[in-house]
Amino acid sequence: MSRFDVVLYGASGFTGQYVIEYLHKAAVEHNLSWAVAGRDEGRLKAALARAGAIVEADLSRVQTIICDSSDTSSLLAMASQAKLVLNCVGPYRFFGEPVVEACVEAGSHHVDISGEPQYLEKMQLKYHQKAVENGVYVIGACGFDSIPADMGQICVKEAMEGDVNSVESYLRVIVPDLPGATINFGTWQSAIHGFAHAKELGSLRKQIYPERMPASKPKLMPRGSLHYSNIVNTWCMPFMGSDKSVMTRTQRGFFHDKEQRPTNLACYAQFQSLWSCFMLMVVGLVFGILANYTWGRTLLETFPGVFSFGAVSKSGVPKKKADNTNFEMTLVGEGWKTRVDQEKASPPNRRVTTVVKGKNMGYGATCECMVQSGMVILQELSKLPNAGGVYSPGYAFADTTLVQRLTERDVTFSTVVQDI
Fold it and tell me: Can you give the pLDDT at residue 346?
């Protein structure tokens, strides 16, 4: 039986319905066959009709596949019909693993947009070897979390030419002054359960990598919980998203598989004022306390607007606001023009700055990153590492044209090199 090039699973969900638009464009450009999958045929048809109206195309003939994350046989049947599955059904902690398992078993590549470190690293621990054996690539974190950061550090690495000692990322989110929530409820829910189970990460990492990576010198000194950065000229705090976790997995891959020098990493978020920093601290303090208790998690999920000061809503982000919520990520790397001795390195003599920009962070840039990641797997398989496996995007796509593809589609990467 011939397979579809791509099956979009969760196509009627909050993010999946937007991915349809980008997948249709890619399918037309590359002459691909594709289908959508989910629990409810009516909702799938409605999502296709909505996307079709936006892209001005008749999508009524796109095939629908009915499956459910609680029914493993239906997932296996879905995955068996695809060369590649784009998985939009989150939170991935609850719904992701059965899809990965089905894809690995059925021989279908798998891409998701998870920003959940526990899920991502658990999939690597449990399915990497079987994925290698079956020639399947499982690449997580292929949306805003964490393509800009992870592929950004690849741009820094390439432009440095020698070893990279450190990379610091600074994320700026530009939110329009419009009514409505800024963050999708699914993202909030993932954060709640990720924080509640953060202790799982230590055990997972010890099982994946029993030995610690050696410390690279000179050591990158932490800048503290709050600092004013002269690099981006704003107040900054440590970024609590998945970027550092994903970037570290990429560094692990380079060190263990290619014997390359590890890079020191730090990730920060930018804020307009001290007041916005203070507000985040308050939300973070309350969130951190409540997320540790079952009753607290229930409160956070029941009243997201209250505990986020209106930033989160179960009804989602208004389209006009989402369309105009953009991001700019600045990655600053320091290192050397050549390879150096890890223990006896001289001070860095080169600085590389990569700036990544994207529009509609949650439902534009994220969708483009996901779809183009899938296109790379389908079209540049020989440039991916090994013969399959579970990888971070930076490690998987380091030698591909992903950055070029994204830059041509308004998720832009630009790099400047400076000798110091």
Answer: 85
Residue 148 scores a pLDDT above 80: yes
Please state the pTM of the whole predicted model. 0.96
Which is it for strands 326-335 and 389-391: parallel, antiparallel or unpaired? unpaired
pLDDT tens digits, residue range 61-83? 999 999 999 999 999 999 999 99
Among residues 46, 150, 174, the alpha carbon closest in space to that of 36 is found at: 46
Contact 334, 350 (CB under 8 A): yes
Contact by Cβ (8 Å): 349, 420: yes
The pLDDT-based confidence of 199 (bands split at 50, 70, 90) is confident
337 neighbors 161 (Cβ within 8 angstroms)? yes
**Do residues 134 and 285 touch, judged by C-beta distance below 8 A?**
no
293 has pLDDT over 70: yes
Question: In the predicted model, what is the mean pLDDT of residues 263-290?
Answer: 94
